[in-house]
Amino acid sequence: MSASPSASPSVPIKGSRFVIIGGASLVGSATAELLLDEGAGEVVVLDNFFQGSTENIKHLAGDARLRTVQGDVLRLPQLIEATRGIDGVLHLAAVMSLTMDRDPWMGLDVNVRGTQNVIEACCINGVRKLVFASSNAVYGYGPGVSGDLVEATPFHSAGAPPAAILYGASKIIGEQLCRDAHAKRGLDYVIVRYSTVYGERQHYRAANALYIIETYDRVRQGQRPRVIGDGSETKHFVHVSDAARANAAAFASGATNVAVNISGPRPVTTLELVRLVTELAGKDLAPEHVDPDPGKVRLTSGGPWALDHRAAERTIGWRPQVEMREGIKRLIAWRQATEK
Fold first, then answer.
1. Angle at CA 234, nearest 5°, toward 190 and 218?
2. CA atoms of 245 and 238, how far apart (whole Å)
């Protein structure tokens, strides 16, 4: 059975059934909470718990509409079973750059073959819409990445760390697998290209997000925060609540066969970010500038850039709401609450 090309691509949240693959994650837990709050009939969190954690979804455990399934994107029969009778699938499961650096073969297997398995399960069971979590990594890294990055910006790879390029390339392949399934099998989908996601239940796996969490960890111990280089590198983040809203908007919209950027209100330099975290942590510590560690994967921009999110507003009716100061304040409040 294939998804019907004549069916409406809109999947209203209220009353619909969803599977979040990689759902015990930062974005997955926030999205599950939002879908339940908006009246979803059922939310299935599928995760192999290699990177996700039951801690991330324990606050939702009392909701009878939430179901947790231990499963793996590399096991197609598990995906087929989990997506029977499901209206919408959010595919978040992926290996990120830091893990890709340690084990590129596993990373490519999960990000490429795993995505193809998810698509196959959706097509077999006639899932009405797939939302695929991609990344601003599809634009690459290095000096060519500058200015406003729009959905048609090409991929740049010169001079970037291999793991970063492998991750970005795996997301490009995933996007093209979605396009292929739409053209050949009528699968409706929306691709959401996140900038770096941060927020409550923050993990240590996203290279750029480490600037936030490592800075907080240092200053709470009374150590001076570190800035890589001169601090002029540009980063663009999006708060996890805004990413969750984008996922819900992608389902509910009439959009299909499209990719949109999902980013916060504005980019920030590394120096601005470190100073902001230090201030909101209640510390008065001057940053120290250090040279990049060649042994670490650090995703630098190569120049000022911003992930343009105007197409998301036009296409799925989404725009970011959480400014960086507010988002970091929420993240620090969560960390302080969990440390007690």
1. 105
2. 11
What's the CATH number where 105 sits? 3.40.50.720
Give the residue with greater pLDDT, 206 vs 88: 88
Q: What is the pLDDT of residue 7?
A: 63
Instruction: Answer yes or no: is 96 within a domain.
Output: yes
Q: pTM (2 decimals)?
A: 0.92
Q: Please, are residues 245 and 30 in contact by the beta-carbon 8 Å criterion?
A: no
The dihedral formed by the CA atoms of 222, 226, 230 and 235, expressed in degrees to the nearest 10: -110
Alpha carbon dihedral 306, 309, 310, 315, in 10-degree steps, equals 160
User: Which residue's structure tokens are 């995703």?
Assistant: 299
Query: Diameter of the chain by CA atoms?
Result: 61
Task: Determine the structural domain holding residue 317 and report its residue range.
Answer: 17-200+239-264+305-322
- Please state the domain count of the chain: 1
- Reported as half-sphere exposure (CB side, CA atoms, 13 A), residue 51 has a value of 24
Name the CA radius of gyration of the chain, rounded.
19
Does residue 12 fall inside a structural domain? no
Half-sphere exposure of 227 (CA within 13 A, CB side): 21
Going by C-alpha positions, the residue among 243, 254, 197, 241 that lies closest to residue 90 is 243
The least confident of 25-39, 106-120, 225-239 is 225-239
Rounded CA separation 132/192 (Å): 6
Residue 273 lies in a domain: no
For residue 196, the SS3 value is: strand
DSSP secondary-structure letter at 55? Answer: G
Rounded CA-CA distance 239/198 in Å is 5
Q: Residue 143's pLDDT is what?
A: 66
Q: Judge whether 210 lies within some domain.
A: no
